[in-house]
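Homework help thread (please don't just give me the answer)

Our assignment gives two proteins as sequence + structure token strings and asks us to describe the second one. The first is just a warm-up. Here they are:
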Amino acid sequence: MAQGGRWTWGWPRTLMGWSHGLMLAGAMGAAIALAVQPPWVQRAEGQAQALLLALRGPVPTPDTVVILAIDEESLTQGDLYQATAPDLPPATLQTWPLPRAAYATVIERLLAAGATVVAIDVLMVDPSVYGPADDARLQTVLDQVGDRVVLAAAYDTAASTGGQLVQLLTPVYRPGSAAIGVINFPVDSDQRLRRLPDPFITALADQSRVAAPGPSFALATLAAAAISVPDPAGSRIHFYGPTGSFATVPFWHVLDPNNWAFHQAQRTFAGKLVLIGPTAASLQDIKLTPTASTMPGVEVHAHTLATLMEGTAVGPITPHRWLSGLATGLLLSLVGLGLGWGINRPLLRLAGFGAIALVWGGVAYGLLVSHHRWIPVAIPALGLGLGSITYTATGALGDRREQQRLRRTLERYVAPPVVAEILAQPENYSTLTVGKRLPAAVLFSDIRGFSRLSFQQPAEAMVELLNTYLDAMVQAILTHRGTIDKFIGDAVMAEFGSPTSQGAQTDAINAIRAGLAMRRSLAALRSQLIAKGQPPLFHGIGISYGDVIAGNIGSVQRLEYTVIGDTVNIASRLESLSKRLGTDFVITDALYQQVRDQVQGVDLGHHRLAGREAELVQVYGVIGLTAADAELYHQVQQDLRQYLGWGESP
């Protein structure tokens, strides 16, 4: 069970070594994955960010941004457009696309109401379906106030024989009559929009070979409003909330006289950056974002605009992705290995991994919400989860194998109920191996005349007889919660109260009951031997009670769990004294005082023990339990004295 002064766990140690190796390999893999950022990592981290944003909930948006939404209601208000654009014949008025004259009227009214900028997230790259007059109406307005208007442009990607063909689609109106903003966004591998568009737009411009590409829709809007913004500290959009986070007004309200009068009175658009764009589901300008399953494109532009204007772009904790991955992998290694080495109990280890994962998630949440910085969440959480599963599984398997091995070993020496208690609290049992002082009853027994018998009997027969005898004695001891310490030839040493105690009185009476059971077992065995014509066996039993030192004792090559001390020496001397007293079962006064109300004893006087000649020891013979019949006692004493040639028993 022990080697080299410490417990060896065999399989469990091997399994834990595998666990440490797997943890290191997993942490290294996580570091590489975070540094390289393959699509599956991007998707996982994107989902983690979405979860943190969902936990955060919506936050206040800038009150200077208003969305004028082309919603389903606005698409059904054709009569209002007819009223505001009487030059269009009724036959040409359709639901979509809206007449350019309608946009012209809305631009005039919004700017007259104090709007700072009007940005239209609708592509007007083809002439109006309502005819040249419709385009002319909007061109006239742009010529007058175009410096405060932003029109949408877009890069179109199409497959061609030479690869992908990228071209810039621009409005059909006179160049320079309005600012131009590109509405493209980069799309992540999970089809969600997270990143600011400008680096992506620059890359598209390089592919299309446009000499002077326009800025993003958001930057163009800020430039038209004369709002300067620093370079963003991060590359991701700060989403303030789900769909509907920004103040939104239906497009048709500006065209309807009554609603427009209300908004003029409320100064709804005064000093505002107004983004016009479709929100109706039928127009299919729907995007996927981290905070919503679907969001109209114009709202994504609003979040982008607010991110740039307020400087809340979300960025990594370090600009170097590889450094972030390396640091995360190193931290995972230290945490995982620390938990694996520092906590031995599987459930506590699992709880430790869970706590670390929660702390990591809490730190990530705080950084994202308070400082607009993100650290990897999904991969570290996955790594910690796999680490906890690996350690828990290997630990549980190792513990199971160790328990089976330990049970098989202990059940040879310890009563099954005691084994169950030890295995239920293995950490307590392991502390006993380092040495502990405790009170216990120590039992020694020895066969009378064994040396003479060994000369008279063949070796094979003697070994069989001895095994039969010891099997009966061990069963009697284990039945009463004793621990078999060792066999010394025909002698047996056992303890009661070590390694586990039931209390002083219980340990003491268990020792007495075990000795009485040994007497009964030997009497039955003796009858069988006599019936077979074999020599009878008698033994002497000595039990003392007091403090012992229990622990692993021995050399580097061999250790054994045993007890030492004066109590052990007294028990051994008592067993030898029983032969001189002509009785089979003697105990010390210290033990007798523990059980005197439950045991019939006979005072055998004070005696000097070998090695303790200067001190007299009070000795009692054990007749039996208080309510038990003394017939067996008297019979055993008589037979023993006759065997020894003493005559009558005391």
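The one we have to describe:
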Amino acid sequence: MTFPRSLAYLALVLCCLMMATPAPSRAFAYGGDGWKPIDPAELALKTPLVEKDADAEALFWEVHVADDVETGDVRTILNHYIRIKIFTDRGKESQSKIDIIPLYKNTKIKDVAGRTVKPDGSIVELKKEDIHERTLIKANGIKVKATSFAMPSVETGSIIEYRWREERGDHLTFYDRLQFQRDIPVQNVKYYIKPISVPGFDYGMRAQFFNASFKPFAKEKDGFYSTTLSNVPAFHVEPRMPPEDQERIWMLVYYSEDKKLNPDQFFRDYGKRMYDSMKPLLKVNDDIRKKATELTAGAATPEEKLSKLFEFCRTNIKRIYDDANGMTDEQRARLAKEIKSPSDVLKHEMGTNQGIDTLFGSLAVAAGMDVRIANLPDRSDIFFNQSIADDYFLNSYAIAVKVGSEWRFFSPSNTYLPYGMLPWTAESQPALILDSKEPVFVNTPLSGPEKSLEKRTARLTLSEDGTLEGDVNIEYTGHLAAEKKEFNDDDSPTQREETLRTMVKERMSTAELSNIHVENVLDPNKPFVYAYHVKVPGYAQRTGKRLFLQPSFFEHGASPLFPTSERKHPVYFNYPWSQEDDVEIALPQGFKLDNADAPAGVNAGEISQFDVKISITKDEHTLIYKRKFFFGGGGNILFPTSAYPALKRYFDTLNKTDNHTLSLKQGGTTAAATAP
């Protein structure tokens, strides 16, 4: 549960449930068959107009948006209609297979229709039986349902067009995000929006535009208003880029009172109002006081007290909505209703994320601390813009405790993060500390690279045929560990092993893993650990009497981080991180180190450092490789596109260094190997 976004929401829902009129239930028709006429100039078009190298281009994309209340059900209806011109074979391949993926939960895709208009003007209709639903796996491992179909008889020069109805259940046009970009350029995007208009409803529909200049809304028939954007470029996701909505063109639609407050005044009023609303969540009773006294016994400083309270809430209180606890949705919903106050959470030793955090806050109050609730944005969604006078983007929270003159921030409901760390989405963010007199924004700290460490150890033996075999241990801490634990905590042991196998085989396709141990998955305090035995046939290349060996085992097969020479979007790293590698490789009998050159380290000042040391034991039987790397020092995690060439060169140098190869010679004399 998160804190209420706005008091207007309640008024909006009640008003609409009682008084709103139904939206049109059918897709908007243009001709007798529901399609706009095809202009001969569209069929004759040979080259794109928006982007000269585009393989396909949308001639238009129109969306009608209206709210609907039927028999007590609330929903938003969006009727989409898009027409696309195909210019190349690549365009035919990319655009003829369509997946319509809902943006919101409880969304239904209905009334799908499509047709292909061939270059000679003949038309082939999309058959109903060719439309089906399938499950897609997104890059982050999340499963999504898509309505899928393939357009018939598509060829270069064709026009394809399709329309669909999107029903967002349990939903009104209240803080809806309306997108204007696709994976191809669009000549013209037009949204028709019908605001709610009922007696006694005094909230006006507002629109906030992002990353483009839009035309003012124009009045249309049937109570609709429209806005248009022309020559919209294609949007393509790039690796390590800011959140998509930070970069893409979109519009936020919502209702609010027209108070004309400037942002400073808005957040001041909001912070005071929310302080009064949220104050009961930090309520202290005798049970809370007793537990706080018990937990802080022997603690001499505020820091020691906070640490004890934090660890108790993090390790002893279970999360109702933790996907690893095995409860059903019905059980979670029942407990969430029963467990309301901090004392309820303490009694049941279970709570929502909000309940666990406010229990920590109330315990800190009982221990004599100055405690507030802080609302803050989520930078995995979009970068917070304090000049927008609305609380929509303050969609997360933390507990703020004043230690001396400094505000500290805590969220023990994030079980897998240690004391002193917030989720990476909440770090380096402006947190609004709620207060009855003077709310204030205070920036949360960003954890340094040393807090999120990947420590990798390997004890390996190389055979004369190039096979490498031995034992591997990898430990993750900080944000790295939290991500691994969250991903694995609801998986079976078999699924966890398969995740590891996939990860290793992406770099070394011939790797064979056995004796796998995935440790501390549910332990809030210990590092997440992978331990396994590995055998990699053909790891070293045999040529005559020589073996060519890459000593950087953990980076073997890794591709360059930034493969493209050009970049459209800024480069963004979620958080700073570090790595430490300790690799020992026993050389095959009769082989000696031939070339002993060690790659040079790379120093990027406070932002990053990369050091490599290569040596050999006195008996000349074991190669020792040590590697240390960190990135993001000094809070440097966001880089403009102008910095991309330098950033790419840096990581290309690292990749080249990681691929450094040593030569082993059969019957040779070992050359000295030292660090640069």
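TA reply:
I won't write it for you, but here's a hint about the kind of observation we're looking for: The first strand starts at residue 56 and ends at 70.
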